[in-house]
Request: fold
Amino acid sequence: MKRELKNYFTFNKKERNGILLLSFVLLVLVVFYQFSYLLKPKQQTDFSDFKKAIVELDYIKESKEVVKEVSLFYFNPNTLDDQGWIALGLPEGKLKVLRNYQKSGGYFKKKEDLQSCYAIGDDFYNTIKDYVSIPKTKKPATINHQPKITNKIIELNKADSLTLISIKGIGPFYAKQIINYRDELGGFLSFSQFAEIWGLEKLDVEKLQKQTIIDTFYIRKININKVSIEILRNHPYLNYKQAKMIVNFRNQHGDFSSVKDIQKIKPISRELFRKIAPYLKVDD
Reply:
């Protein structure tokens, strides 16, 4: 029995080396486990959100300080200029709304009337209300921005919209349609062309003739030796096909020596030539 136990605990050289190696590995693992916390990277706290919050608080604080720096003074809202309103703290966008309100006849009899203007918000009104000073006077006569109707003879090829509105029978819509068609044509040649304008069916051309004249000197002509198809097609008397034929004919046969040369293009009828010729030229 004793001999058997002795044999059990007896190792040869190879086995002893294996035991020593295994013991060394176990020792290394135990040491590594005990000091592994030293190898872990230290976690750094992220302060970015906190810094961002501080910046936002500083911005709000600065904004409030700016508001406090707004100059307050006694003023008459009916006569205060743009710089005065801005000094009080009214934004430029709302200043435009205020000016449009006043141009349309808006007038402040008392400070409470400021609240009827969309440009004056509740916060702004509460800030300035104690500084509003309106003299107790009668409301001045409203300035009428509508041009007075006169008997002055008006030239139609140069008149702007305000001048056209001053003509009896011409309102804003008619004035806009007349100017748009005049620009497309290059100017009017005769009063008969007003029948070509969409929306002017009820216009009394005879009355218009008594108040206006047409000066063909102001006709704007198109140089057919330089114009492109896209520009030429925009003229009311020409379509894309006709404009393309004119430009192609020029490209094939050279520049036109006179406007009459476009009659060589068969699809250009006499009637079309009569209408379009006054708006064309061959040189500058």
Notes: Confidence is low (pLDDT under 50) at residues 62-68. The first helix runs from residue 2 to 8.
